[in-house]
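Notebook entry, cofactor series.
This is the third protein in the set we're modelling with a bound small molecule. For this one the ligand is zinc ion. I'm keeping the input format identical across the series so the outputs can be compared line by line later. Sequence and SMILES below, as received.
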Amino acid sequence: MMPPICAVCRSRPERDSTRWGGFDVVYFRPTVEYPDDWAGHPENAEWFCPTHLPLTEGLTDLTANEALKRIMARASSRSDEQTHDVQTHGAQPHGDQPR
Ligand SMILES: [Zn+2]
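Returned structure with ligand:
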């Protein structure tokens, strides 16, 4: 498993809890089959921060590449308008402050 870095904004969680600060892995449609004893990071799995995690909704039937394109598009269009239905998954809403 690779370290958690948001696939959208490249922010990293603070490692101070058992959960990765609300970061979570999303699995998209696999395009590669791995042997049972393979233990790397699957190509269809991507990390997302709590801010961008909701943008993956409904896209997990796509491959990671396709889904990421749409997630990026969603992320840039969302920054222009107020979001009124942000799902926080019980995490802190501001996990990726710019430095
Ligand atoms: Zn992010």
